[in-house]
Amino acid sequence: MKNILVLLFGIYGLYLYFIHRLTSYINPFYILFFVIASSICVIIGIFGLLLTVTTKRKKIKFTKPPIRSILFYIPLVALLCLGFLFKPKSLSFSYATIQPTQTLYKNFNIRDTYKFPKKKLDYSFNDWYFDIKTSPDPRKIVGQPVKIIGFVYKQPEFNQDVFLLSRYVVTCCAVDATPTGFPIKANNSEQYENGAWVEVKGTWSIMKDRNNDDHLFIIPTNISKTQEPDEPYLMSIDFYNFL
Amino acid sequence: MNKVQDFLTISLSIVIESLPFVVLGISISICIAVFVPEGFIIKVLPKNKFFSHIFLSLLGLFAPVCQCGNVPVARRFMLQGLSVSQATTFLIAAPIVNPLTILTTWIAFPNNHAIAIIRLLAGFLIANVIGIFISYRKDQTQLLSKNFNEQVCAVKHTKPKKKLLFAVHTFTNEFIEMMLPLCIGAMIAGVMQVFLPKDILLSVGQNIFLSVFAMLALGFIISICSTVDAFFALSYINTFTVGSILTFLIFGPIADIKMLVMMKSIFKTKVILYLLLFIAVISVLIGLTVNLML
Fold it and tell me: What ipTM, to 2 d.p.?
């Protein structure tokens, strides 16, 4: 039973890797270590099963650990079954409703090795996120074109024609995910339901909020529904600098 | 349905992120069992009670493993003949007195290196105080869970002849012993993350007293690896007091939900609760002291 469980854990890990869904759970930095660990589990699981058969045939005795009741294994088996049965998915928008949204305007530095694309239209969500967080004056991007993908998140306190184009920022895994987003001002925003993944093309602009503070907005020229990207989460800039 | 899916995503993410460290910890444990000569660890340890605990609390500097990986190593130490107090000192110190944790905390707070220093000293102090306190107990094995106590008592102090067979069997047994509490802890953390809104906790960020307790609760709920939790804490630096950030950084690696449930593979529930209480009190005191001094 134990060998089978070890083998199943390893198989589940490799299954997630081969269907490219590990990034729904962990920072891509950890993928290699996880795949190695899963492979070790598969090898040990197979060896264990073979050795169990061999030792039973040869009647070799060894110290057995305390016998556990079947109830002991239920949480383990339950989580494994749920993992196999439910399609792997990244965090939904409803998780963002109970998390504080990360602000973008802070003074950060970024390593010189980070290469921003030459053209602004080639900037990904992550590139804009890093650019704004590290810029001493984010307003310099006003007027620049933008094309990014994120999920729709409508906060109750927003006006009806505004939604956040959001992504989760992750340090190690989904457990520390913090939502961040760029406000989109669109007259037809009611067409897009909460959680829907969309691609927004438009231009950066500045608008005043209710407290008369400046906020960067995207004025869209086109919003189209799209698929969730292979890497749905952003890497925290601090973790990136550390690597 | 979204909440159920999010619960599953978070629970699985904790298990997935911890798996490499658990495998690493078990591998180190097996290497100790197979390759370290019998009695070597006890010979190497200083004979003085205090110095032996101090030595073990610094052992984490050579094993940069997340807290999940330290549990199988601590178990192996006890099976190799170390006392419960000595192994507990290692278990509590290693997540914080750890080169990766020290480095990431140092880098995360470049304008306030005192946070890294206080965190390191607090982890060292808590581990040694707990260890030395336990060392005065006559029968330390009474603190262990029934199952683990049976293993400690039954262990044969001879090197295994069939090393491969031993390694495979030990890996399998230790893996299941670790993954069960890890899965339970992950599911509890998942429930709390998804169904508990954090607005209430986060609204008290600037209060000198309440912020410390809020961060204590956050550290308990969020089962994040000690090697990178400094970056997570950094995101709260502008909304929470410095003392509360320290409380999170000290309490979280030692006593989050995941770690407490994993400790169930070693200790009795009552012992874990006493440990939790002591660590919480010290973490809060340090946090409050820093807040009041600033």
Answer: 0.85
